[in-house]
## 1
Amino acid sequence: MINVTKSFLPDQAEYNAILKLSWDKAWVTNRGELVKQLEEKIKTKFKITNIIATTNGTLPLQIAIKALDLKGEIITTPFSYIATSSCIAWESCTPVFADIEVDTFNIDPLQIEAKINDKTTAIIATHVFGNPCNIDAIAQLAKKYNIKVIYDAAHAFGVTYKDNSIFEYGEVSTCSFHATKIFHTGEGGALFTKDNALNDKLYYHHNFGHDGPEHFHGIGINAKMSEFQAAMGLTVLPYFDKIIARRELLYRLYYDLLKENEDLQFQKILDNTVYNYAYFPLVFKSEEQLHKVKNALNENQIFPRRYFYPSLNTIPYLKGELMEISESISKRILCLPLYYDLTEEEVKHITQIVKKQI
Ligand SMILES: *Cc1c(COP(=O)(O)O)cnc(C)c1O
């Protein structure tokens, strides 16, 4: 069976050897040694100003909204995972959708500007499949209208834009280290900001607001990463460059084998980007064609994923307006299997099945 993804797991002995430090001290959470080590290693590797490791990639979005004290309307993308929108509603703000660009699948700055009014306080944009948003145009809008920018960079671990880590953009960036993501800690995530004062606020919020064992700086929640999660991250991180190189090879092979077909559309990656090959999305001519391909792959025990589907504006509790491009792409997009252990033969086999159906 071939699934859309498979978690990268080194030899279990490597995980055990790293975890031993916390195990021997019987200190398994609350900002243990391994969490601090993981933060330092990520910070150094990607030249990042600040990082706070968290227990998943959803709480950081909620914490960012809280720390920036956002109210009213937040403009966001309909083409993302549900967490990008639900965090807005969860924090009692109103998600307002702006449609995406047809070639990059990222939120369109022109559509954002059309939705800005005096209730708008922020933009939450996703770097879809690790492809950076139009960061420069979004920064200009934020400045012009005095609103904040949060990037959901859940897919973008390892990506750089104009020689900076993608996490250095926006007031706050968040990442997910979920088992299905390109770098993982089982469950996990992180908060990033270049603003040291804001980093302090985010830090308090992620640890109940604790300011010492008996004092509280303000309201908080529990989003701490555990030592078990950090041990997983420290086990996987040394392999990260190898993981990317392998994925790049498989991604290019998929592309070469499929690029001649005029029915298929590929994601356009922004210029000045070092990409991480997090996904291999493929857009078909019609939803009917997608179903044909998906069924044929499923019959061969191959399970791509409709991702992202459905378009978030169609989810009843989010009460979105019609988003033509996002709805159209959502109905026609499949992410093909892409992971470290996938073989070149399997990629060839998958593309043969795809090509037979279109
Ligand atoms: C995975 C994902 C999240 C949520 O991350 P978790 O770690 O699963 O909580 C948020 N946004 C996007 C775009 C994601 O893909």
## 2
Amino acid sequence: MRSRTNIALGLAATGSLVAAAPCDIYQNGGTPCVAAHGTTRALYDSYTGPLYQLKRGSDGTTTDISPLSAGGVANAAAQDSFCKGTTCLISIIYDQSGRANHLYQAQKGAFSGPDVNGNDNLAGAIGAPVTLNGKKAYGVFISPGTGYRNDEVSGTATGNEPEGMYAVLDGTHYNDACCFDYGNAEISNTDTGNGHMEAVYYGNNTIWGSGSGSGPWLMADLENGLFSGQGTKQNTADPSISNRFFTGMVKGEPNQWALRGSNAASGSLSTYYSGARPTVGGYNPMSLEGAIILGIGGDNSNGAQGTFYEGVMTSGYPSDATEASVQANIVAAKYATTSLNTAPLTVGNKISIKVTTPGYDTRYLAHTGATVNTQVVSSSSATSLKQQASWTVRTGLGNSGCYSFESVDTPGSFIRHYNFQLQLNANDNTKAFKEDATFCSQTGLVTGNTFNSWSYPAKFIRHYNNVGYIASNGGVHDFDSATGFNNDVSFVVGSSFA
Ligand SMILES: *[C@@H]1O[C@H](CO)[C@@H](O)[C@H](O)[C@H]1NC(C)=O
């Protein structure tokens, strides 16, 4: 604690607050972090401890990923080496504040999660690669059904106490389900009433509130309402966001709250709302409970998606000046995109996708009508079968950094997942279709290439009983079986039959 204070005072004396990390800045401003979560980097200049824990599929062991240096970017190479040849999940997001407010797999609440015990899933570790100042790091890619939580917290705001928070997010990854949140929620995983939450929300849900345009928007989840401003309705000063990296801030104190945001890669914060609490009963005073959630609503509503890179919660209502310094520090961290593929494909190529599982390696990914399956194909097969097993690589319909596979014999139709089974469907141009039809290409777990679903990066194209799925390495479905998983998700890409 002493060294942190010294850092803050030293920087205050020179006035160069931008050099300090976010939690040094909040500390200096008199509103210290009580939770600090970042898989991408340390959020204190002096922090050298673990940022997150990985759990790998091959043997179930875990490892901690730390910054490369004090206050630095995460050691992504350590993740790549630990996860080589297997799958990895982010099992803990550590709290850097010293209060042990770590984020763990969210447990069942009013709503159940998809795992075998009704809890939420953990995030796949490879879904959100980025660079910070040119150094690779991984964010937390939240698919529907994924969530993190801590109900046994220390130091977060309760009752009507003041607090602040920010989250750096992928502004292009969202949906309109409830609720991609980061912040203060119920300790019971259930809805205990208006004013029992105060969290950053990001997405284009319009059930309670909205901003200008068609979204997505930064809003505050105050429980039983996503608020873009004072009322529960539209606040046209809350803009639609199109930034790839976005800083969203929410803060509250007795009968006052604010919503502020900015491009996280440049520029300064704008205030979308600052004023009184909603007049609907229950929000003034607030009844905060202090649990911390990521990717879900307070009652464990888990239909939303989004990407979280870093965020904190503070004790006390941060000043606008403090928040401006934090935003400057985020910009200086230089978040940037990097390849989503470790084994890129060539867009426009016509390919075949060959099974490698011993005993099945005369089979290729093919389709029979709408069913995506594997079939035995060879140079002497009928032209129609050859065409069924031939795919054109297209730019990913849901994310241009990955790929979509268009059927050679049914142009305009693509491989997509639906209830985790692969299907061949015509592109209907919906956001859901495009995302379901987008796959990224990684170095094969055993050989060749392994394809993760863009929208569910913990799930990979797999053949099981000669049918195509997106499967996790162990899970609730028979096709998630860990037995044979690595072989079943390893395919050899070759030139097409037709
Ligand atoms: C959210 O955005 C998507 C993509 O533009 C759109 O299809 C969907 O209807 C929107 N949802 C709402 C509630 O506006």
## 3
Amino acid sequence: MLPYGRQDIDEADIEAVVAALRSDWLTTGPEVARFEKAISEVAGGASATTVTSGTAALHTAYAAADLAPGDEVVTTPMTFVATQSTACAFGAKMVFADIDPFTGNLDPEAAAAAVTDKTRVIATVDYAGHPVKAPEFQKLAAESGALFLEDAAHSIGSTLNGVPVGQLADLTTFSFFPTKNLTTAEGGAVVTPRADLEKRARNFKGLGMIRDPKEMRAEDEGGWFYEVQEFGLNYRLPDVLCALGTSQIARLGAAKARRQEIHDRYNAAFKGNENLTLPGVEQGAEPMWHLYPLRVEAARRRAIFDELRNRGIGVQVNYIPSYWHPVFHDMGYKRGMCPNAEEFYAQEISLPLFATLADDQVDFVIENVLEIVGS
Ligand SMILES: *Cc1c(COP(=O)(O)O)cnc(C)c1O
């Protein structure tokens, strides 16, 4: 089965991991700082704190935002549930706002209508790799005293008006799961241009242990001494995996170019087909495409999906609207809240897209889609 996404591991990656295994540091060593520097460079200079997954990155970002019970998070249903579950872990209330079906991203106007004086975070997702309308969310967050969080699990390497993802929001989170744009097997990062948020993020991912005597409340007792002033967790990404990340991130530009070529090839083949809706691109956006989200007639989506899978094409659906999950239903969230997201979901099929996908494989997907859908 041709997968919808997969990793690209080369000999340099393997050598980098082996070198880390042979070194003195399996974790908390120099490879962590090296990878964080490389992420920061891709993210336009904002600081990067590595963690063990994209989910851990979201959890850490909400901790940095000091999210507390009673706070509200205005967010998109068109995402993986981790965007919300990690905020719910702090007792926050999710307020879902609808998407713009052109890109699948949270609609700034819908988000603005959902903001209240309890809104602490506006949590967006760069769906498929396409950056959200960051200037509008930044303005909305500033006006409402909230923080703007960009779940960029899909979009490391993307830019908006020339500004890299990582510099667009107060807090940006990356995932390095194998299907994403670069991988450390499991891994993630929190990126922020704000020193205060970086400090809170680092503290949370390191069990809350404070070792700087200047920041201690009690007298420093000696070289062994540390204090915990707020609880954190152990979300440290090991050197072995950071070494893989540094090797991977060096090829991010080439991966972006190849993903764009594949996207263009799909677009060229499907353009003008009245049975299909293609992914939209806004002016100023230069996405690093993580997904190719094709939309078909909702009534035929299941049959088309099943037939593509029968033919060895590992399509996927991204995403089931978050609040459809029973965990939200049990809290009183009802279907029908965000009609654009529900319609988008009902039509969506993600086609295979990854850097090592060959042109003849792309053509195989195209032929089968057109044969099944009709042109
Ligand atoms: C993958 C993903 C996550 C979670 O990342 P993991 O590394 O799998 O924990 C969060 N949000 C979105 C939008 C994702 O696609």
